[in-house]
Amino acid sequence: MSLQFSSANVRRESDVSTLGTEVYSRLRNDLIAGYLQPGERLRFRQLSATYGVGIAPLREALSRLISDHLVIFEGHRGYSVAPLSLDDLYDLCSLRTELSCKALRKSIQHGDTAWEAEIVASLHLLERTPFPGETADRETIDEWESRHDRFHRALIAHCGSPRLLHFCNVLSDHFQRYRRAVVVRVSKSAALMERVREQHREVAEAAIARDTELAVAALARHFEGSVEIVAQNYQTISKNISGGKSA
């Protein structure tokens, strides 16, 4: 009997862990995408109904998301979505620029023809995907973000350092929280959107031509421009991205 009881416990713990991993992935995607607003309280009852899991997997997922700096825990308030702020934006993007440019430099050094082909293919797909407009639904925005991420990850994919790639991807995910807050708003500017496309092409062409200094400089300008676009729109959208409270 004791052996059977022990086996059942192991199975239950394994089930909880599996569910925790699954809900962690789903919650993380929704947090990055902004479907859960910065500052929003994360109540177990609502989360359980939304994601179809019990309390134990949710606790496991939220603990991991705290480590990811996407969720915060305060004893008197419980769990809530991590806030956004201009200070965090500039700190995040300074690190993102530094590490991504380093990874691009290494990828140009080590990249092969398959690396070049993926850059060309991902850029082609991105340019064939319209910027999300004011009436864009979740699927449309997600598709553009997915292809945008694919392009930027293709640029640095051959840096030869799994740890460097990991940190670049984490920083990119965190910046996506900010970009998502303004992408529909700024997409109304055709001139701005064309400038972004030109920046993507400039980085891609320089990387494939193995012009390291031009490619790195172009990527840095692109990131710095993205930061300024978000910062310029921050005050207007701050109520939305901070849950109605100052960040």
Automatic annotation (TrEMBL):
Q: Name one matching Pfam family.
A: FCD
| Entry keyword set | DNA-binding, Transcription, Transcription regulation
Query: DNA-binding as a keyword?
Result: yes
Name the source's superkingdom.
Answer: Bacteria
Tell me which residues make up the HTH gntR-type domain. Answer: 17-84
- What InterPro entries does UniProt report for this protein, alphabetically? GntR_C, TF_FadR/GntR_C, Tscrpt_reg_HTH_GntR, WH-like_DNA-bd_sf, WH_DNA-bd_sf
Q: Which GO terms describe its molecular function?
A: DNA binding; DNA-binding transcription factor activity
Q: Is Transcription found in the keyword set?
A: yes
Name by which UniProt lists this protein: Carbon starvation induced regulator
What species was this sequence derived from?
Hartmannibacter diazotrophicus
Organism lineage reads as: Bacteria, Pseudomonadati, Pseudomonadota, Alphaproteobacteria, Hyphomicrobiales
- Point out the gene that encodes the protein: csiR_1
